[in-house]
Amino acid sequence: MQATVSFFDETTRSGRVLLDDGRELPFAAAALEGSGLRLLRAGQRVRLDVSDGTQTLQVRRVRIITMP
Questions:
Q1: Which CATH class is domain 2-64?
Q2: What DSSP designation does 12 have?
Q3: Residue 51's pLDDT is what?
Q4: What pLDDT, in 10s, does the model give residues 26-39?
Q5: For the residues 34-49, what does the mean pLDDT come to?
Q6: pLDDT of 7 strictly over 90
Q7: Residue 20 C-alpha from the chain's centroid
Q8: Which of 9, 31, 39, 53 is a good FRET partner for 64, with 20 to 30 A between their CA atoms?
Q9: pLDDT exceeding 70 applies to what percent of the chain?
Q10: What is the edge-to-edge ordering of all strands in the sheet holding 2-9?
Q11: How far is CA 55 from CA 33, 38, 51, 58, in A?
C-alpha cells in the first residue's frame, strides 16, 4: 500500500500518513525500525506494510518507495 507523509515528528520519530483514499493513519517509531530511515518529510511518498487492528488499519512498516 502506498501513502503520502502528512506529518513527521523528528524527536519521537512518529507521524501520520495520508492514504490515497483520504484516510489518515498514525505510525509509531517502531514502523521505521530496520528501514534505515531517520527522517521523513511532509509530501513524501512511502510504501506501507499494514495489518488490520481491532477497528482500523495499523502501520507496521514505513519505507520509501524506491527502497526494496
A1: mainly beta
A2: T
A3: 86
A4: 999 999 887 778 88
A5: 88
A6: yes
A7: 13
A8: 53
A9: 93
A10: 24-27, 14-19, 2-9, 45-52, 57-64
A11: 24, 29, 11, 9
* Residue 3 · residue 25 · CB < 8 Å: yes
Look at residues 53, 54, 52, 44 and name the one whose alpha carbon lies nearest to residue 62.
Answer: 44
Cβ proximity of 35 and 67 under 8 Å: yes
**What is the residue whose three cell numbers read 488499519?**
57
3-class secondary structure, 29: helix
φ, ψ dihedrals at 32, nearest 5°: -95, -10
Average pLDDT, the chain: 88
CA-based nearest residue to 13, from 36, 1, 30, 25: 30
- Domain-by-domain residue ranges, the chain? 2-64
pTM recorded for the entire structure: 0.83
